[in-house]
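User: Please predict the structure of the protein below. I'd like the answer in structure-token form so I can feed it into my own downstream comparison script.

Assistant: Understood. Taking the following sequence of 183 residues as input:
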Amino acid sequence: MGLGVTIIKKEFAGLWLTPGNGECDVAAAGMMKRVGRDLGNTGAWSQSYMLVKRSLLIRRSDADVLKGPADFTGKKIVVTPTSTAHIDAEERYQPLGSIIIPVVPSQDEIVNQLLSHGVDAFGEGNVSNEYLAQKYVDGNGHRLLALADIHTMDQPETLRFAVRATDKRLLHRLNEFIAERQT
């Protein structure tokens, strides 16, 4: 058939618009269908493939003191700009005095800032943060990072793909694929 996959890296902000703009067939980056993320007439959301909880990645040495929202007063929390983590941080932590930093050069860079005490937490979904907590260990294999304040948002965060909708077969097949893996 001559079909292939080409990976295109883009910034998160507006990523959901790329299929509808004809830039790609499927956009995937842990995106949630939210008000303000309209895909227009040429894009569509897939069915949900995962329910995510929000969490903060912190230094393991801080796990006894940084547990709930009030513990992050005056603390620096990094989030991906325009992401659900950004929305959650502004609603949950900023009113309590947390400093929200919506800049993520890379996950590795943020973890380095976290471990060097440049920032205090990284807001992400629990799956992404658990991956990072497992990845970063000391010489004895002990985790350097931990998850704090794991919670669901008022509107449950169900992750979806943004799909080019000019040919409905793509969306249909993707939804079938998702359904097969959820049973």
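That's the full token string. Residues 54-151 form a domain with the D-Maltodextrin-Binding Protein; domain 2 fold (CATH 3.40.190.10).
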